[in-house]
Amino acid sequence: MKLFWKLFCSMTLITAMACSAGGYALIDTQFRASLEREVSALYEENDLLRYALAQELTFNPLYSRQELAKAAGGISISTSRGVLAFRLSGERGEILGGSGVLPTENVTLSNALPTGQRGWTIEILPDGRTVLHAASPLALEDGILYLENCREVSEIFASRSEQYQNFFALMLVLIGTVGALALVVSAMLVRPLNRLSHAARQMAEGELDQRVTVRGDDEIAQLSADFNVMAHRIQRQVQELKAAAQRQEDFTGSFAHEIKTPLTSIIGYADLLRSRPATEEQVRQSAGYIFNEGRRLESLSRKLMDLIVLNKHDFPLRPVPLDAFLNRVGGTLRPSLEQQGIRLTVCAQAATALMEPDLMETVCLNLLDNARKAIETGGEILMEGFSQEDGTPCIQVTDSGRGIPAEDLNRVTEAFYMVDKSRSRTQGGAGLGLALCRRITELHGGTLELESSPGQGTVVRVRLKGETL
What is the DSSP annotation of 173-242? Predict the structure, then answer.
């Protein structure tokens, strides 16, 4: 059964039971009070008759039971209800005499009462009338007589029946009214729960931004507030899961992006050895580059896994001479750049910077690769290493390419953001290079700065920590 019907039936049933019990108790209390008044009046009439008989005995104390019963026929007492009828009976229930006719002609109480005590009972006559029948003992020298009298109480029983009928009709009206109110109240109570149920179904369908309005401070309002807290936490956790999945995807894209550069160098030097006559020195130098790039691939894959997937931040930094480091990096890409008609110039001072060489080489190679992509036909790339006036070591890459529009300059370090998407896809870009460069630079405690003008080229500056910082 739905909660709506449970509330409706409960409220209607409880109200009906409470009103029925209260009405029955009220009618019964009134009836009992009326009956007690009638019993009191019955006993008063019996006492009055006893007094009249006692007066008779005063004048003639030698009356026997038979004589007193015969003398009682001459006693007449009138009340507002008329002349009182009574009779005298023996201890075994035999009728001895009396005045008038009692409604209960053949019923006596003398043989039903404890010896020497009075009592009363209710009798229903054949014609449907209801009477109270009382009896009290009279002690004589030759035995005990019982004085019996009756009082009709049909009216109070009829009144009780009428009250029950009226109360039943009133209860029907009351239950109908309470039922209508219960429908309204049940609907009001269930409405917030229906909103919660709807919001829960919407969340199950993927709409995690569902919230419910909290009204009041009752238990349902508290439940609504708890639902909103739960929905917020679920949404946050789902977002975290999506972010984790995005990091996995970023790793895949970044790894594919990063291995292209050493592979390009390996393929370039291998092709140079395969297609051209070379001196022993050129063979040794090319083999050295191929060996170094192969080793860098191995190290890079492990460190990218730590950086992107495991979000590791405790790579050890060590002092590295900028001139030797940049000359080695420049030599890695120089053959492939020259094949595209791009002249690479490396100009580095004898400065020292704190870095993780493999990761910082990834930054430099990414910057050189971006510079290569920005140059359409021919051009120059300048890679510099120097110390600023405050001793901060810097790596700077300047190209003569097409530049970056001002509205895109602040977004190029966002993951997957590409200024010219069609060109970037054609050249194998994924929009992750500068995002990875910024992240690695921040890992080194440095900053990545960009300056660019459309048609005039771009300057990318990496500020690092010096050996004494």
Answer: HHHHHHHHHHHHHHHHHHHHHHHHHHHHHHHHTT-TT------SSSHHHHHHHHHHHHHHHHHHHHHHHH
Q: Print burial letters for 284-304: b (CB count within 10 Å at least 16), e (below 16).
A: eebeebbebbeebbeebeebb
Residue with tokens 């789902």: 238
Angle between helix 219-275 and 433-443 (nearest 10): 100
What are the mean pLDDT values of the chain's consecutive 10-residue runs (469 residues total)?
A: 82 90 93 94 90 76 71 79 86 82 80 82 90 88 84 93 94 91 86 84 84 82 87 88 77 67 80 76 82 75 56 78 92 84 90 89 88 84 91 92 80 57 41 74 89 88 78
DSSP characters over 342-371: -EEEEEE-S-EEEE-HHHHHHHHHHHHHHH
Instruction: Give the per-residue pLDDT at 59.
Output: 67
| Inter-residue contact 65 to 140 (CB < 8 Å) | yes
Closest to 361 measured CA to CA, from 391, 337, 385: 385
Residues with Cβ within 8 Å of residue 465, at least 6 apart in sequence: 317, 353, 354, 392, 393, 444, 445, 446
Q: What is the pTM of this model?
A: 0.48
Residues in the chain: 469
Contact 456, 440 (CB under 8 A): no
